[in-house]
Amino acid sequence: MTTDQEPERLRITVEPLRLSAVLEQERAPRTCAAIRTLLPYRAQLIQARWSGEAAWIPMGQQRLRIDYENHTSHPAPGELLLYAGELSEMEILVPYGATRFASRVGQLAGNHFATIVDGRAALAELGRLVLWEGAQAILLEMA
């Protein structure tokens, strides 16, 4: 939290879309701290293969060594998850519609660390971009 009690925000840019998410600091403090160490983070956002209406940022063999906190398999649209990579590779999941988080090994649970609050109406367009136009450059940074 900032000194004036405003929640910390994450800026998410997938041109031409600009979204803002509130960090879930109280519910996932270790995950939020780990995410901060990565920022600013530039990557490719691609359509999820097993999770339904979601995009993901594959992070390969990178690991942040955090346990489950505020974890779920059924995030709502705009609820960002970090999967630390126990059974599958580490990733950030960005749900834009109905999602059940999974991989080739089955259902997974990820730590809900941020919720999109500004630009929620653009989630459908985000989904269209990754589904019909392929991988999209994404930038995550503190607002």
Structural overview:
The strands form two sheets. This protein has an eight-stranded antiparallel beta barrel. It has a two-stranded antiparallel sheet with strand order 8-9. With 143 residues, the protein is mainly β. It is built from two helices and eleven strands, in the order ββαββββββββαβ. It has helices spanning 29-38, 123-132; strands spanning 9-14, 17-23, 41-47, 52-58, 71-72, 79-83, 91-99, 102-103, 106-107, 110-118, 136-142. It starts with 8 loop residues before the first strand and ends with a strand. The mean pLDDT is 95. 14% of the residues lie in helices and 44% in strands.
Topology of helices and strands:
Blueprint: E1 9-14, E2 17-23, H1 29-38, E3 41-47, E4 52-58, E5 71-72, E6 79-83, E7 91-99, E8 102-103, E9 106-107, E10 110-118, H2 123-132, E11 136-142
Antiparallel strand pairs: 1-2, 1-11, 2-10, 3-4, 3-11, 4-7, 5-10, 6-7, 6-10, 8-9
Helix content: 10-25%
Low-confidence segments, ≥5 residues, pLDDT <50? Answer: none
The number of helices is: 2
Query: What structural class should be given to the helix and strand makeup?
Result: mainly beta
Strand content: 35-45%
| Tally of DSSP β-strands | 11
* Rg, nearest Å: 14 Å
> Any idea what the shape is?
globular
Oligomer: single chain
Cα-to-Cα separation, first versus last residue = 13 Å
The largest pleated sheet is described as:
8 strands, antiparallel, barrel
Average the pLDDT over all residues and give the rounded result: 95
Main β-sheet, spatial strand arrangement = 1-2-10-6-7-4-3-11
